[in-house]
Amino acid sequence: MSYDDDDGTNAGQHDRLGVLPDELLLQVFETLAKLGTRKDLCNVSRLNKRYHRLSDATLYKQVLFQTPELHLTFSESLSRRPRRGSAINEVTLAYPSSELSQLALDAHVHGSYIHPSRFDGLSRTLSIMSNLEKLDIAVPSVLLHGIGSLFNGPFDLSCLKSCTLFYQCPNNAYWDLRENIHIFAHPELEELTLRRAKLDEQGFNFLERPHETALKKLTLIECDINDDGLSDLLELPEALEEFIMTHAEEPEPELEESSDSVADYIAALKSQSESLKSITIDSPSLTSRKVLRMREFGAVKNLRLNWDYQLFGKSSKKPRLHSVGLPPELEMLEFFNELGTDTEVNDLLLALIESRSVIARRWKKMIVVEGDETILRQVKATCKEAGLQLDIIGGFDETESEDGETGSGDDGVVEADESEGPESGRDL
Which domains are present in the chain? Predict the structure, then answer.
């Protein structure tokens, strides 16, 4: 391959790559980056202007900031050549508080055309990435306000499709979502994940409420979110399809804003009842004082909860005036924890399975974990009679016949599977 100072059009006769169109050269360079090293691709980029331009599209497609120093160096590079910012599709900022030195992250970057009062250094760097599609944030909370200002609009990141936000706070505290709340107003964002955020009962102020957004999937990991505040935020997506909320069995620090009832969070989802297809609430500390009524959730196919009593409500001395209302199109119901912790609830679960053909005719599968053998035997028998497939995580792939002989499931209705497939574990 010969060296050429021009744009590659007069490459030497030994430059066989020069005759390829840009689309094929991009594939070649991407393969080189995967099989070789980024240094190899940097060497190729020095051969001529054409290779330099095409190599940038691969070299800067994904950027990982692991230290503040790297961020500042990259900021200066983008200030000199802002065109490179448009080549970046994915950015990950992941460095702990211990890596955050006394660097002036909010200082004006030398040579930058953006006024220093508009954003801090980190936000200023991100704003140059006009074609950014994926943004993962895991940085100290001192950068919370600066990055949050990036979402206040008008949106520089107009192509953003996926975003994860996590700010590391002292004493492992929850960070205030109020500083970044306008991420919910992003018109094109489709997937949003929040980790260890907190929000009180207030959502958007009336005067600043945005229009409908494109959000499809919302994931809340170990967050302290008030159900009323969440309800206000969920009025914005045009058609949310998946909701996931997870927390530890004993949250630390203790939750201050969150409700203690799973029913309150189901109520918060009602504005999206016509579009939601999957609901996962993996929060063992949540209880329920009354049965869930989810007949309005006409599109839900997958429902995952921790306990059976979160669906039915715990036993009480008062008579039950309402039966559980499963989503009418439900296909899969999963419980992450053992069945049978509440005797009355166990009877209600068996009755629900028996009524499957009336309550949820499309209900095909129920997934549970291995637990009390007496309870599981009753559930197995009832599922088999009702034609409902039962998967038991941690159990053996066999069933016991009435005469005591052991064999594999003869009709495929009752299955016990010790493997964890995509729908049978907590791989969210």
Answer: 21-60 (no CATH), 61-105+119-393 (3.80.10.10)
